[in-house]
Design goal:
Elements: H1 3-8, H2 10-13, H3 20-33, H4 38-41, H5 60-82
Length: 87
């Protein structure tokens, strides 16, 4: 599946999820299902970080928040690239 198709999955991901664990499991499944694309790796829990963020210096809640920020940043980048959300 190409990047544009992955973006279309946003609708599925916008549905409420009961916990961050649920979201992390979903990210991991997407990562695997789409052939481990580089742009998704940054918010998959078991992948090495590419930024300066050191999870050992933060709480579990902060680390989960960091991963969610990575997801948000990806969606913003994809929106700009593919022109979604533009009227």
């Amino acid at each position: 599946m190409d990047r544009r198709s992955r973006w279309n999955l946003k609708e599925l991901l916008d549905k409420p999820c009961p916990s961050s664990h649920c979201l992390q499991r979903l990210y991991s499944e997407l990562y695997s299902d789409f052939g481990c694309p580089h742009e998704i790796a940054r918010f998959v829990r078991y992948m090495p970080l590419e930024d300066e963020y050191d999870p050992r210096k933060h709480s579990k809640v902060e680390n989960e928040g960091h991963m969610l920020e990575q997801w948000r940043d990806y969606l913003i980048e994809a929106e700009k690239k593919f022109g979604f959300g533009q009227d």
